[in-house]
Amino acid sequence: MAAVKKTYYSSRIEAAKNRPAELFRTVRGLLNNTPQTVPIDDAAEKCEAFSQFFSKKITLIRSELDAAVDAISEDIARAPACSILMDSFQSVQPEDVDKVLGEARATTCILDPCPSWLVKEARRGLVEWVRVVVNASLREGRLPAGLKQAVIKPLLKKPSLDPTNWNNFRPVSNLPFLGKVVERVVASQLQGFLEATDYLDPAQSGFRPGHGTEIALVSLVDDLRRELDRGSVSLLVLLDLSAAFDTVDHGILLGRLVGMGLGGTALQWLQSFLEDRTQKVLIGDSCSAPQPLSCGVPQGSVLSPLLFNIYMKPLGEIIQSFGVRCHLYADDVQLYHSFSPASKEAVQILNRCLAAVSDWMRVNKLKLNPDKKEVLLVSCKAEQGIGLQPVLDGVTLPLKAQVRSLGVLLDSSLSLEPQVLAVARGAFAQLKLVRQLRPYLGKPDMATVVHALVTSRLDYCNALYVGLPSKTVRKLVLVQRSAARLLTGAPYREHTTPLLKQLHWLPVSFRAQFKLLALAYKTLNGSGPTCLSERISPYEPPRRLRSSSEALLSVPPPSQVHLAGTRDRAFSVVAPRLWNSLPREIREAPSLMSFRKQLKTWMWDQAFGPS
Predict the structure, then answer these.
(1) CB 551: neighbour CB atoms within 10 A?
(2) Per the database record, which ranges form the Reverse transcriptase domain (predicted)?
(3) Around Cβ 382, how many Cβ atoms within 10 Å?
(4) How far apart are CA 393 and CA 252, in angstroms?
């Protein structure tokens, strides 16, 4: 029986090993720690009730917003006129379809005529048929009605929440597989258009190639550290939206698409994608009647995040017009304003900016989540923040000791101690769960699971950990040591350096430096975002020297860097210094893959000595 169980567990993990989210769900399922869905007793009645609940929730939000915009000029929702730059989507070739099918996730919907994994397995024989369907859809500017239906499964947001309170359920939607294939084709071409026209704001970091949460946070923390070094304080305001994707106004979005230069069948296809959609709720084997959707972009869709970015684009321009900086990551809005502690006008400027943001949200049919408005005062001193609390919609926002920004806990001194402690606790909890699987998994499968659930936590945004005090980083070091002992079966007191070498793991501090240097390489070679490329620049000596051609970076002079926190941890200061310490052949690596390979070898020698 144990052998059968081991084979079963191994096959499940092997099938999901290249998809972290799927692997996490698989392990959670193997441990019987599955997310809570609705009990299936009286499923038919509950389906209809949930369907009405989700629809009325969006209707109520929209009606509240409609009532609030009477006194606000709707000009801020209008897009400027633009000549047509893209009037059709290009037809796809068989090799394009084969690639899309191969990369698509096998998420079967009950509306699919056959399982999506079977379509992927048999794709060589289906490529031509799928190509004909995709090209007909693009040519006619129309998405078939059968591909615009969504199936909703209510999922409890957290296991600890009350399942009798329906506000605690999230509507998780599932869409037909073929529809997602067509969407992938459109999304690829639309993404290319956005990049070619440089349409999106550099402050938008979500759902964009080369723009992730780590880059957004590295940029934010670098700005905040440099401001501390100048003697300034900063107010960081975090805003979140309620059901943001579900309340997007189709008319406004189509206006934005016209404003960015879309027309012809390209615009017709996107209009068809948005309109005449339906959704129904599934509980057990019961389904509700379809509900028509008059607004929103479908969650679970491939294309929706891209359209949401286009919808949100004007917000960054409004915020920056007040001299306030921002980062927009999907429906998370981060504003930060830096100023002298003696300034009497700074908070008023931020308040006017927040008022403009609130007005823009209402006109654009987006609702700020009243329970997720947080403010952090970043300062070198233990400021009380009296008189520095910003006001939004007539409510004073209290200052917090720490806030969670894109999954990272930031504190007022940017020590990152709360973040490191939270990561260590979470990683140890995952290790405890993984130990339960050890009797049923071989070493390769255990290594896959430990990476997915433990070391991935240590590596998330670990570029922020460069330069942290050793006593802070030690908490993460202990996690890595425990993970190494678990995988190797070593006793508790055994020295871990040989274990790390055996597993080919770089120590925690080197992993952080590796991540930061990889970001620097991508930024210098054109694959990094503007928000990072503005922070580092090639070294240009006053006169021609031998070092001029050695791919060095300019390091900020001591006159610009006074605090140890900036000198040791700010990306714009640390990245050039670490980069310049690398051997020239690594700095001049021809590709990211080559750079990473050479960098790991060099760091391995630094950590453990030459092999």
Answers:
(1) 18
(2) 136-410
(3) 8
(4) 24
What gap in Å lies between CA 341 and CA 344, rounded to an integer? 9
Cα–Cα dist 227/212, whole Å? 23
Is the dihedral angle over the CA atoms 466, 471, 476, 477 positive or is it negative?
A: positive
What's the CA gap between 240 and 242, in Å, rounded?
Answer: 7
Closest CA to 225 of 233, 213, 216: 233
Spatial separation of the C-alpha atoms in residues 140 and 132, rounded to whole Å:
12
Tell me the pairing of strands 291-293 and 277-283.
antiparallel
Which amino acid would we find at residue 606?
Answer: Q
Cβ-proximal residues to 413 (8 Å cutoff; 6+ apart), any chain: 378, 379, 380, 565
Mean pLDDT value across residues 591-601: 97
Tokens representing residue 150 in the block: 């969504």
Token representation of residue 261: 């230069």
Q: Helix/strand/coil (H, E, C) string of 256-304? A: HHHHCCECHHHHHHHHHHHCCEEEEEEECCEECCCEEECCCCCCCCCCH
Domain 217-243+309-408 in this protein, CATH class? alpha beta
Q: pLDDT-derived band of residue 300, with 50, 70 and 90 as boundaries?
A: confident
Residue type, 127: V
Residue with token string 């995709």: 134
**Phi, psi dihedral angles at 158 (to 5 degrees):** -140, 145
pLDDT for 2 beyond 80 = no
Cα–Cα distance between 60 and 295 in angstroms, integer? 13
What letter would DSSP give residue 114? S
Q: Quick count: other Cβ atoms within 10 Å of Cβ 445?
A: 19
The model's pLDDT over 164-222, given as tens digits with 9 standing for 90+, comes to: 888 888 888 899 999 999 999 999 999 999 999 989 988 888 788 778 899 999 999 99
Residue 129: CB partners within 8 Å, gap ≥ 6?
A: none
Please choose, from the candidates 159, 26, 120, 3, the residue with its C-alpha nearest in 3D space to the C-alpha of residue 449: 26
pTM: 0.90
Q: Is the dihedral of CA 248, 259, 220, 579 positive or negative?
A: positive
Would you say 490 and 484 are in contact if contact means Cβ atoms under 8 Å apart? yes
What residue spans define the domains of the chain? Answer: 94-200+244-305, 217-243+309-408, 510-608
Torsion sign, CA atoms 289, 293, 297, 302: positive
Which whole number is the average pLDDT over 276-305?
91
How far is it, in rounded angstroms, from Cα 607 to Cα 501?
10
Q: DSSP class of residue 331?
A: T
- CA dist 91 and 131 (Å) reads 9
Give residue-wise pLDDT tens across range 10-62.
777 776 776 666 777 777 777 665 555 666 667 888 899 999 999 999 999 88
Vertex 517, ends 423 and 19: CA angle to 5°?
55
367 in Cβ contact with 242 (< 8 Å): yes
How much is the pLDDT for 79?
Answer: 59
CA-nearest of 359, 353, 412 to 381 is: 412
Cβ-Cβ contacts under 8 Å for 395 (sequence gap 6 or more): none
Q: Which residues of 136-156 are buried (b: 16+ CB within 10 A; e: fewer)?
A: ebbeebebeeebbbbbbbbeb
User: What tens digit of pLDDT does each residue of 99-154 get?
Assistant: 999 988 888 788 888 888 898 889 899 999 999 999 999 999 999 999 999 999 88
